[in-house]
Records
---
Amino acid sequence: MQTVTGLYDNYSDAKAAVNALEDAGISSSDISIIGRDGEEHDSNAGEGAGAGAGVGAVVGGTGGLLAGLGMLAIPGVGPVVAAGWLAATAAGAVAGAAAGGAAGGIIGSLITSGVDEDDAHVYAEGVRRGSTLVSARVEDEHVDAARAILSDDSAVDVKARRAVYREEGWERFDENAPEYTDDDVLKERDRLRQTRDLMP
């Protein structure tokens, strides 16, 4: 199995990617989605994301992965809506670990699954700043299809995003960094949109 991952600045694009992965024959149990909570999320998870709250039904769920969305609090990120194997890893880390365990769980799980460590830190930082992560564990015969889905025009260019972050002095995801507020997320999206608009 290989892990293929994409980062999206718009939750609706991430949701479309999950649906496309499922339509391509990838099992819901092998797909994960983790993103900041907000009005744009059509989560059925309810309110109040305590550490590990609402994650019992995260994996599986009828009607595909998105039907199983739950709430989770990740140190350094804040409340997220999440479902799938990666979310279950984070939930386990939060339930039984000290602060920072969930972030370490997400990053560690991605690295263990074959994701480049530098990319894993960009993915975690992206979620912290309001983006949504979609990750799929796929058999060899589905790798090309998954890569095509998760690297389409709506996905973030991870190398370019890393460069933007590093221009600000960022090096790695830090679970002790202040959580982004909803206003911070909106400002970040506007800033990134302007950055993209200025690119040749």
---
Amino acid sequence: MPESLAAQASPGAAPAIAELRLPAVWQRLVFISDLHLCEELPRTGAAFESLLATVQADALFILGDLFEYWVGDDMLAQPFEAHCANALRQATARLPIHVLRGNRDFLLGERFFAATGCVDLADPTALRASWGESLLVTHGDALCIADTAYQQFRAQVRQPAWQAALLARPLEERLALARQMRAASRSGDRAPESYADADPALCCQWLEAVAARHLIHGHTHRPGRDRLPCDGWRDVLSDWELDQPQPRADMLIWSREGVQRQSLV
């Protein structure tokens, strides 16, 4: 089981950073994020299933927002979500898949992990490789502290009492609410560059708390690599969008050679 490492206390700091020591036989790890799976994106879903069937890795890490929305594990009875769960179940029979909750699917629960065979990954987690390197992974939304309104919303919806109250409502009501919020969000779509990015000083604080120099996250939809003020590195995963004229999807591969990016388009 992961052990907990205390993070330094300051606004925006993670209350605890989990630690996962990787088996010595794991020499190649793959990371993806922000697939936003839903029925309206069939090509994106098909690309994900293809990756599950063909990826060459010792483990796959999904760093949040696997689904466009997830309003409770009773969604497993829905045809599309049941299909996705079955694809994950088949894939976990051949390789470990770790799933971290994002801002869209923070209600993924025990039934989802039992049904799919995926491993519940804490956000954030420090990964310790057998070759002596460490990597810090997170969804990324908690690092975007300049967006104070979102951070207040995030703090509210992560409270167990709030989640219990929502999950007590009928599934159709929760689905309608999620669709309404999704439509409102899309009506106000802006370029990713106009949204708050991960705070560099906070990235460094998290890295220093776990003695790591490399951070991987998603969420911001701004793929690339940045040098951090603490002489560390930040790799940002792309979102997946294969149903639009300009398709995009990538993955990051971590091995003894470092972290490398590979396009899946």
---
Amino acid sequence: MAKLQAGIIPVTPFEQNCTVLFDQDTMKGVIVDPGGDVEVILQTLQENGIQLEAIWITHGHLDHAGGAMELKEALGVDIIGPHKADQPLMDQIEARMSAFGASGMRNCTPDRYLDEGDTVSFGEHVFEVYHAPGHSPGHVIFFNRDQNFAHLGDVLFNGSIGRTDLPGGDHQQLLDSIRDKVFPLGDEVGFICGHGPGSRIGDERRSNPFLKGL
């Protein structure tokens, strides 16, 4: 089985986990959520010899999608995701960035939206797509079944859950997404999230204080 590798590049004032997923043998891969600091992302790819095949977006908030158009233009790759319900958020990135102390971000229009049941891939690495709204209306998560690995964006964190006080957020919908989309992936699944350290789904199900009674 080809070995899937992951690396994190913290970007933007939000310390967002821009994630590089790549194949250890071919060094081909994708970037998940390039929110900004594109020059740092490009330098990291070059220094590590990673050939980018696509940009994947979990959701449309500026710290996750704000650098996607610049990166697309620099490397000539497609932007894939999120669900089309997040396009209004991506249309407001430039208008909202100054209010959050950010700069250099651009509105984003993906080349392909994602829906529940879609798959995305690079090389032999296939990821199932799940629509998991609540943090935002069009949030998606990516799951690689072969290697028990998921990228959950801002749905679930180590010891916390995604905010729901931003435009389009819905607390109950987020909890429903965790219960119905994340938990069924399996307790043994390790995940990277949009901010902070990753975890395992089972550890969060058992100990995350925001999930009591779920």
---
Amino acid sequence: MELTDVIHGHRSIRKYEDREISQELLDEILEAGIRASSSGNMQTYSMIVTRDEAIKKQLYEPHMEQSMVMDAPVLVTFCADFNRMRKWLALNDAPVHFDNFMSFMIGAIDATLAAQNCALAAENRGLGVCYMGSTLANCDRIGEVLGLPENVVPVVGYSLGYPAENPAPRDRLPKEGLVHYEQYRDYSDEEVMDIYKDRNEKGWERYMAVPALKEMTEQLGLKNLAQIYTIAKYTKESHTGFSRTVLDYLAKQNFMENE
């Protein structure tokens, strides 16, 4: 496919055919990730491919019991990884550091760039992915299942397989609401409401079209999509809790030594 068709045709795929991905195709997808840009060409990430059913069962709960964890033939977890780099430094009599928050951020960005390269390569070959925010939210438990050593933290992960569904692409905010030229130009109240106009309508319609989501919305007395996001879906309490999990795990994994 044309690259623009791949990009604009992206959808989150949660249902997969009972069909394996050949090692040859998987290697092609992973090689695309390896070609991604990285800070200083250090490639401070690792990619963990999970096919084993027993390991997927262990990942199911920390991935918030999302069905695609078990249904997809492959899970791929992209980790910020300075473990390899630090060992290389020691073997070459170089100072061994990269044990701070900035280093984690570099590795996290590297991992995310590799993940998106792999996703585009996979979609170009007719496969589908579904990114899982639970990878970072429950990084400590996922790291334990994957046997991660110090200086390695799971950042981005997704299911991968041949789609067994054909969902419509989700709406996106308009370019005018996202792009700034030269300097950031803050938004007026009117501009904000205009930017989110379609999202408000389409997002609300999507929730009302699913009986379980509609029932939840009605039980909580929610009146608009903004309330769904902040009262039902992404509460302050949940984000505070996940923040603590990530920060504690970064300390455990030796990324907060100089903080």
